[in-house]
Amino acid sequence: MSRRSGILEFAVLGLLRESPMHGYELRKRLNTSLGVFRAFSYGSLYPCLKTLVQQGWLAEEQGTGREDPRAAPLTNRRARIVYRLTAEGKERFEELLGQTGPDAWEDEHFGVRFAFFGQTSRDVRMRVLEGRRSRLEERLAKMRASMARTREKLDAYTLELQRHGMESVEREVRWLNELIESEREGRDQRDQRGAGGGGDPRGPDPSDDFTP
Known about the structure:
Arc Repressor Mutant, subunit A; 8 helices; 2 domains; mainly alpha; 6% strand
């Protein structure tokens, strides 16, 4: 499976975990909620859905007839099919949600992973955020070194473009630092409640988790 199709699989399972959807609605959510998929077409989505059904992670059901009228260009068969996450599909999504390897830090995959941080454990969120920050710091160091070597050879516009790219990476690093600090503060507050003996005897409040 390619990296890009793996991202799509993760996003589809995550969205269908919220509620069953038909293909048009699912594509609309991918486009509006996860901007990285704006370039995806039905030609990419339906093979993914077919594969997930074959794997047993999704089930096809007949729709209620309330599909969005803008889905008219689709065939009637497709317009009626609603996709639902199976128990095995939920397990698969949980497995993917817990992965924190380098793919989770890359540009496209990180944006999708971040969109599902509300369903992700704090420890996993921290590892993904710290991995992303480390990757960007490496990129920033290379950009600075490259600019130092070529500064005298570049015209003003090319140099300005490189500066703009560096500033964009620097902004994201600052943003990640803020997120990581928020996660750490939330953990410290929860730990202090538990250590002080004055916390809620029912356990930590899930609302204490940072939700971007």
